[in-house]
Amino acid sequence: xxFEKENINTLxxxxxxLMTIMASLAQQESESLSANVRLGLQFRYQQGKVQxxxxxxxxxxxxADGHLIIDPEQAExxxxxxxxxxxGKSFLQIKRALEADGILNGAGNAxxxxxxxxxxxxxxxxxxxxxxxxxxxxxxxxxxxxxxxGQVPKYYVEDSHEAIIPxxxxxxxxxxxxxxxxxxxxxxxxxxxxxxxxxxxxxxxCAHCGDIFRRIKxxxxxxxxxxxxxxxRVEKDGPDCTARTVHGEFLHEVVIKxxxxxxxxxxxxxxxxxxxxxxxxxxxxxxxIAAIDEQMKSMQQELLATVNSKNTGDELGxxxxxxxxEKQALQxxxxxxxxxxxxxxxxxxxxxDLPCELTEYExxxxxxxxxxxxxxxxxFIVEFKSGIEIQIDE
Length: 394
Fold this sequence. Notes:
Elements: E1 2-3, E2 8-9, H1 13-46, E3 60-62, E4 68-70, H2 72-86, H3 91-100, H4 114-122, E5 130-132, E6 135-139, E7 144-147, E8 155-157, H5 167-181, E9 204-206, E10 213-220, E11 223-230, H6 231-234, E12 246-247, H7 248-264, H8 266-277, H9 281-305, H10 314-353, H11 363-369, E13 370-375, E14 379-384, E15 389-393
Parallel strand pairs: 9-13
Antiparallel strand pairs: 1-2, 3-4, 5-8, 6-7, 10-11, 11-12, 13-14, 14-15
Helix pairs in contact: 3-4, 8-10, 9-10
């Protein structure tokens, strides 16, 4: 066998050596080209230039200039997924509902997966931001990619394109995902599976052991009823919890009483809470973030200046990371205050729209207003999402 262009005969020893050298050179050229491509991509990321494959990306398409733009019909599906999740539905329930309505996923398939729903609910691109370099190339020749867990830098670009989901809604969803994933209350710290079938599931807790209450159908000598019991009492190998059993109708009455009390006190309680949130702390935090941005900008310039010098810039890099963490903590604080403001406003709107006190239990009221109910021996503590706590005695 012979390579005519290079005049190499692969059958003799010389040809075999030359082939080895050429293969090595080809691999080096490939690695060099790949490195150049990576550097080019990192430079684009540093400039905040976003590249997104929109073909399987539900909610967006691209215009003639290659910029992400909203696909109105698909965007409504994304909004529906966020809305239904916050209303209490699980990934599985949302998946089944979308399939039942014949709605296609981002790949154009009628079959949805729970992982599709979670990816949509956790993707920062739906709030107009973009986290770049989530994956990286591990093997250049095989083009194998893996999740980036710190092996290469990540870049977060804010407001890179038009948002479909408001940031406060996105933050609520992340909080709810974390809450459902960490239903491990109680002395046993066992994992509890979230159920979105009933509004009270996952929010009723035992004051004795800290575990959740579960809805159970009772058949006592032919008399059927629905009760809520501490999971620790229900499980055979659980701790010996002394928590009482609460009838479903009575728990509904507790919810109605708590909402009605909030309705009666709305003009006294809610404005006071709003005033406490609107403090000078907001301005201080904004000033701190602005100062950190200036520090990081200056340090980044210093770091760039060390590229062609013997100075590795490790100390500067570590300080920039520390400042980023500090900025993130301050932004989380801001977001938390904004979230509380939004929840108070939502509760105020809800109570203002109520024509009179409630007389009947509604699941939607629970999903909209309540955060947690703690069951004590002779009273209940009802916590609202707005931060208000109301004690209901028996």
